[in-house]
Structure formats: C-alpha cells, structure tokens
Amino acid sequence: MDLTLIHPNKNQPRKNFANDEMVTLVESIKTHGIIQPIVVRPVEDYFQIVAGERRWRAANEAGLKEVPVIVKNYSTEEMTEIALVENLQRQDLDPIEEAFAYKRLAETFNFRQEDIALRLGRSRSHVANMMRLLQLPEFLRNELSAGELSIGQARPLLGLPNEDLQRTALEQIKEHEMTARQVEALVRQLLAGPKKEGTTKAENTAEVRALTDRLRISLGVPVAVKLKAGKKVQGKIEVTFRSQEELDHILQYMEQETNKDDEAITSFHI
C-alpha cells in the first residue's frame, strides 16, 4: 500500500519512540524491508494505523514508497482496544505510558483491574501499582518517563502529602543516588518532620509516628493512628482512600499481609 494513504492513530497510547531503537529499525528496513505487515483500517479516504506505527515511521525514514499492510474493518472501540493491548504487550513502554494505557482500558471499556490483568497475562497487583503512579504530580511522572527515576524509587513518594516534600525527596534521591529502600527511609524521615522537645501525648510518641509512617508508605494513602489515653494500648487506625482503585489496592495489600509468615502490620507493638 502507498505510504501516503496511511495515517497514524492520534490516540496511539505510545508517545515516545527511542531514537536509538528507531535508527536500528530504519537500517533493518532498508536492508530487509518490512517483514511484519502493518495493520490498518479504512477511514473515509485514508487508512488508519491499528498496530505498527513504529514500522510506519521507520519506513518513512527509510524512504520506502509502499509497505505491506493487513486491512481490518475494526470499529473505533475495537481499534482502541487492539492498539492498547498491542502496545502493552511490548516491553519498552515507559512506566507512565503503561499506566495511562491501563487507565484508558479501564475508562474506555469499563474494565476492572482483574479484567486488564487477565487479558494481558499480568498480575492484578502489577496493574494496580502501575495505575497508582498516575497519582504522582507531573514533574515526578516526567522523571519516570525519562528514566531518571525508577518505579521502586517513585512509589514511596506517593505517601508524601504535598509536592514540596516530594520535590525535597527527589533532590535527595538524585544527590545521593538512593536505592528504593533508602527512599522509603527518607519518606519516613520527611513524614516525621523535625523533632519537637517536650512531647508527651501518646499519639505523638516515636512508636506511633513510626507505625503511621509505615502504614502510609505501604498503602500509599493518608493514614492516622489514634490512641486512647491510659496504660492499656487501645485506639483506632483511620485509612483514607479517594477512589475505587485505592480501595482495591488497600484490600489487596491487607490480603497479602495476612498470608505472610513474617512481620505483619498487626504484629506491631507499641
């Protein structure tokens, strides 16, 4: 098919195409041509790409005039789902692209996280954890997309209550090249804040703060531990969630913790 008749999908879930990978693909196409056809669908007077935009881009750069295609009469919904799934089956999406693709599947087709995981052969916890990355502010999402921040480094930052603390944490992470475990410790330190002299109330003890910080980092949502005055340890834990996804994540975390033989949250002693 003539390349001029083929147009990209403006809703393509993948936004970033690594230059070094494209150069390699262009050289391969110049030598061997396009081995795997591009999947397109007819739209008015042109054909829209369903799967294979990288190959289409590389073919243009290689100077090809025609490319092999497979024409499918997909509806817009079918095309969207196929494009999302095809991209998610690749291994080179950045974390934010992957998270947005999950979100689009959930919103466009009313898929639950279990549905997405089943279709892609991934665990529900993986899908949930990736989607939670979208709760990070834009400057942290950009760091993830650029590869300047790993998922393990970024995830604990969800427990920080505002962008000022998150920016402070990011500066420390880059300056000291922190591991994910070191970032968790940093978040606990930032949540604790400067030490105050003369604090005697039970709810402000170091043990309670440590428990609160641990829960907040583990769950990635606001947590409050409130103790009753007296010698006997009594009180309540309040967990705040702001969406169905956050609730699902909390419930899944609790289920996983009950199946562990090592230390669980409920075994923490004050």
Q: What is the annotated CATH architecture of the domain at 3-74? A: Alpha-Beta Complex
Name the helicity range: 40-55%
Number of strands: 6
- Write the element-wise H/E pattern from the N-terminal end onward: EHEEHEHHHHHHHHHEEH
Distance from first to last alpha carbon: 71 Å
Which term fits the overall shape? elongated
Largest sheet: 4 strands, mixed
Beta-strand residue percentage: 5-15%
Structural class: alpha/beta
Specify the CATH class of the domain at 3-74: Alpha Beta
What is the CATH T-level topology of the domain at 3-74? Answer: Conserved hypothetical protein from pyrococcus furiosus pfu- 392566-001, ParB domain
Which spans have pLDDT < 50 for at least 5 consecutive residues?
197-203, 261-270
**Radius of gyration over all CA atoms, rounded:** 24 Å
Counted by DSSP, the helix tally is 12
What strand line-up does the widest sheet have?
1-3-2-4
Please, what is the average pLDDT? 82
Give an account of the 3D structure.
Strands 1-3-2-4 form a four-stranded mixed sheet. A two-stranded antiparallel sheet has the order 5-6. Among the domains are: 72 residues, Alpha-Beta Complex (Conserved hypothetical protein from pyrococcus furiosus pfu- 392566-001, ParB domain), CATH 3.90.1530; 57 residues, no CATH class; 57 residues, no CATH class. α1 packs across α2 and α9 crosses α10. With 270 residues, it is of the alpha/beta class. The chain has twelve helices and six strands. Helix content is 51%, strand content 10%.
